[in-house]
């Protein structure tokens, strides 16, 4: 049996698996960063909605447009 062929195959297989695992870790990291950014954005939208409602109430009380 040709041991060089077997070692070459094993090296390629190990390299492929290592590359896939590294790629998966990077994808998971980037996804978690994106989720954090989306959460911050959603929080801002909620706060702006509350602020706009308060401004509307103040405008109705005073009769002025802010």
Helix content: over 70%
Output mean pLDDT.
93
- Please write the string of helix (H) and strand (E) elements: H
Terminal-residue CA separation: 85 Å
The whole-angstrom Rg is 28 Å
The gross shape turns out to be rod-shaped
Count of DSSP helices?
1
Q: Main beta sheet, described?
A: none
Portion in strands = under 5%
Structural class: mainly alpha
Task: Give your account of this protein's structure.
The structure is a single chain. The protein has one helix at 3-62. It has 66 residues and is mainly α. It has 1 helix and no strands. The chain has a domain at 35-66. The longest helix has 60 residues, at 3-62.
Descriptive terms for the model:
66 residues, 1 helix, mainly alpha, rod-shaped
Task: Detail the topology: elements first, then pairings.
Layout: H1 3-62
Summarize the structure.
This protein is mainly α and 66 residues long.
């Amino acid at each position: 049996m040709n041991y060089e062929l077997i070692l070459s195959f094993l090296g390629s297989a190990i390299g492929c698996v290592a590359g896939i695992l590294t790629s998966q870790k990077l994808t998971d990291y980037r996804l978690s960063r994106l989720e954090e950014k989306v959460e911050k954005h959603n929080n801002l939208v909620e706060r702006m909605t509350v602020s706009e409602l308060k401004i509307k109430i103040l405008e109705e009380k005073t009769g002025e447009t802010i």
